[in-house]
Structure to design on (444 residues):
């Protein structure tokens, strides 16, 4: 039951503070008024809101955005470790500087629109702006549910349209070019397993011998591994193994006999045990490429600031001419290797990645994948994840059932799988052939 308490103001006149009980039985103030009638009305209204389940502590809305996010939202919001890492980065990179000092109840839709405009002016992409706004919207959805604010300032605020880009799928011929450009047999087997299974990177690099039934050509995906900042890891490590893949359900599918035979041979050759990772991190310092012999047809470099030109494939061309063609870089690489061999240089040691055996994604991308992509001669950039896209597209182009492909890939919705229909560059040729056959009937 609420009540009003009389007290004297600074001018000696009586003032009345209204008090009410919240759902936890705590005594809270509903404000101070000049008359007892107004105070009684205030605590009665507050108690009515408590009965309706709409009561909140007005003081909580006066806290700053920074305080709410850092002390309430981030610590207690349930999310995956990788999601927490990404959200934390986005909040401090794009959101906190703008809204941090503001009170929660003072943030209005006009402030959010101004923030969106500021991000555009700073050159952020529409996709990044949309992501940042979705994070901000999630924060205020929780604040609204907690009755910290009575308004959701993100409602009705639009962000720039994210243009849809056509999906470019690698063809079997292009994959073969990339496959043979990979440096080791293990790298090639990793890529071939990826495109034959459609597994995600985290599922593929957490694959263990016990997950394979090679006699029946079966693979079971029941775990995935994610690479995160140690401060977001429960045990302060780099790799976090989750006992379920993305859709929270294990899946089982068949692979072709030829890739099953390769995997079996690989396991036997490396004497892998049941709990061993199939593919592991093997750091190796790349050997310098042999410098090609200077040839007359290579010509001279562009003129430097002093107007001088140098012959390609020489140290002078690299150092003084600032040329970075492959001939000049190779010449300099061999020169440095020769100096290290005789102890004349003390080079920085090769970076050792923090790994428990799992393959670091960035190391694989920079040291294995990108050099192979450059050597393959492909005219477009292929990411490792694109092999999963290619797997889906190849299956559907070959006539596989849409539901079967969905289950193999672990998609949550069949509409996601449908995006891979007719995505191969030559997929439209079937329609053209049909058109030509139909038109040619009048010429017979």
């Amino acid at each position: 039951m609420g009540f009003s308490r009389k007290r004297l103001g600074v001018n000696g006149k009586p003032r009345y503070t209204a008090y009410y009980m919240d759902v936890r039985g705590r005594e809270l103030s509903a404000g101070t008024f000049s008359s007892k009638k107004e105070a009684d009305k205030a605590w009665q209204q507050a108690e009515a809101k408590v009965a309706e389940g709409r009561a909140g502590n007005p003081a909580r809305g006066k806290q700053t955005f920074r305080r709410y996010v850092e002390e309430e939202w981030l610590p207690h919001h349930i999310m995956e470790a990788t999601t927490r890492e990404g959200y934390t980065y986005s909040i401090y990179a794009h959101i906190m500087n703008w809204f941090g000092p503001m009170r929660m109840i003072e943030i209005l839709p006009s402030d959010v629109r101004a923030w969106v405009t500021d991000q555009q002016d700073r050159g952020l992409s529409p996709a990044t702006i949309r992501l940042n706004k979705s994070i901000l919207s999630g924060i205020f959805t929780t604040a609204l549910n907690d009755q910290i604010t009575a308004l959701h300032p993100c409602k009705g605020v639009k962000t720039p349209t994210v243009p849809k880009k056509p999906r470019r799928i690698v063809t079997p011929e292009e994959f073969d070019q990339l496959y043979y450009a990979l440096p080791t047999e293990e790298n090639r087997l990793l890529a071939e397993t990826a495109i034959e299974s459609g597994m995600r990177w985290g599922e593929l690099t957490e694959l263990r011998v016990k997950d394979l039934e090679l006699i029946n050509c079966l693979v079971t995906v029941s775990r995935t591994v994610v690479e995160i900042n140690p401060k977001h890891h429960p045990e302060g490590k780099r790799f976090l193994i989750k006992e379920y893949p993305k859709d929270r359900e294990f899946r089982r599918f068949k692979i072709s006999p030829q890739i099953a035979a390769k995997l079996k041979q690989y396991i036997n050759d490396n004497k892998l045990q049941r709990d061993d990772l199939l593919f592991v991190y093997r750091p190796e310092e790349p050997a310098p490429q042999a410098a090609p012999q200077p040839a007359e047809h290579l010509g001279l470099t562009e003129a430097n600031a002093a107007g001088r030109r140098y012959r390609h494939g020489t140290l002078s061309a690299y150092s003084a001419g600032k040329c970075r063609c492959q001939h000049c870089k190779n010449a300099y690489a061999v020169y440095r290797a020769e100096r290290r061999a005789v102890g004349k240089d003390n080079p920085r040691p090769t970076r050792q990645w923090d790994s428990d055996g799992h393959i670091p994604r960035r190391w694989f991308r920079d040291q294995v994948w990108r050099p192979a992509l450059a050597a393959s001669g492909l005219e477009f950039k292929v990411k490792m994840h694109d092999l999963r896209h290619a797997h889906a597209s190849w299956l559907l182009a070959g006539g596989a059932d849409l539901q079967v492909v969905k289950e193999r890939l672990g998609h949550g919705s069949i509409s996601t799988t449908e995006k891979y229909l007719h995505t191969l560059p030559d997929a439209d040729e079937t329609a053209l052939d049909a058109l030509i056959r139909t038109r040619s009937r009048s010429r017979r």
Strands lie at 3-8, 14-21, 27-33, 212-213, 218-221, 224-227, 239-242, 251-254. Confidence is low (pLDDT under 50) at residues 285-291.
